[in-house]
C-alpha cells in the first residue's frame, strides 16, 4: 500500500502543474500472455496503462496481482508528474476515460481535487490497440487462437469445462490410476472412443491427456520421435480443413501460453472456480522422452500397449 504522506505530497505537486485541455485514457487488464519465471510458477500479469489522446503511452506498469484503487491513483499522479520520455511535459489533463465502473467510484474523489473529470467509456478502442501491440511484443508474435474461436464453443460451455477441471483436480484420481492405466471413453455407446491417460502419479504433472485415436496414444509410448516432433504432427493434423479435433487433446488443459486467450477471462466470468491452479499434461509431456511420459519407463510403455490390446480383444473399451 502506498504511503499516505507520499501520496499527499504527490497530490500537492500535481495541483501546481499546468492543465491542458485534453483527455487521457486509463485501463488495467489481465494480460493475454504468460510470464514464466525460472524459479516460480508461471502467471498472467496485470497491465496498467495510461495513454494520451494522441495514443502515446504516458505511463505503464506490469505486476503479478490486480492493482488496488490506491495503486491506480498513485500511478495516475506519477503519470502527470513525470510522463515517460516522448509523451510530453508534466501536466494535468481535463478528462480521464476509464473502462471499469468500479474505477469511477474509486478515482473520482481524488481526481476531483485535481480538477480532472473521470468518465466511464467502454470499450476503449485506443487502449485495446495499444495493449494488443504490447502483448505481441511481450509474448508471441501472433496470438494463439482461443477456444472461443472453435465452432459451437460458447462461454458457458467453457465455464462448465473449467468447473469439471477443478473437480478433477480435487478428486485426485492419480492416487488410484497411473500412467499405464489407459482408458477408452465413449460419450455415447455408439460413438467412436477416445483414449485418455491420467497424469499425476509421479507427483509433478497433474491432469488428463486425451487422444483422438488409439494410434495417437500408442505413438506417445512407442515412437522414436521427440515430444516436440510429435506435437508438430498433432498440430499439423489439427489444422487440416477436414479434421475436427476435441477442444482438449493430448496436449492437455493447463499449459501456460496454451490456455485459450479469449476463454481465460470468459471462464472466470462464467463461473469457473478460482483457487488452486489446475495443471494439465503438456509441461510433463513436452519435456519427457518418448516412453517416459511423467515417469513412465520403457517397460511400463510395453505394459501399457499390452493393456490396450488386451482390452480391445476382450470386447470393447475400458471403463
Topology:
Blueprint: H1 4-15, E1 23-30, E2 46-52, E3 57-63, H2 69-81, E4 95-98, H3 101-112, E5 117-120, H4 125-138, H5 155-171, E6 183-185, E7 194-199, E8 207-211, H6 214-222, H7 227-239, H8 263-269, H9 282-287, H10 298-313
Parallel strand pairs: 1-4, 4-5
Antiparallel strand pairs: 1-2, 2-3, 6-7, 7-8
Helix pairs in contact: 1-2, 2-3, 5-8, 6-10
Elements, N to C (H/E):
HEEEHEHEHHEEEHHHHH
- Helix percent reads 25-40%
Overall domain count = 2
Classify the secondary structure makeup into a structural class. Answer: alpha/beta
Biggest β-sheet, characterized?
Answer: 5 strands, mixed
Strand content: 5-15%
Output the radius of gyration: 25 Å
Helical stretch tally: 10
Low-confidence stretches: 241-319
Strand arrangement in the largest pleated sheet: 3-2-1-4-5
Identify the overall geometry.
Answer: elongated
Distance between the termini: 53 Å
What oligomeric state do these chains adopt? Answer: single chain
Number of strands: 8
Q: Round the mean pLDDT to the nearest integer and report it.
A: 75
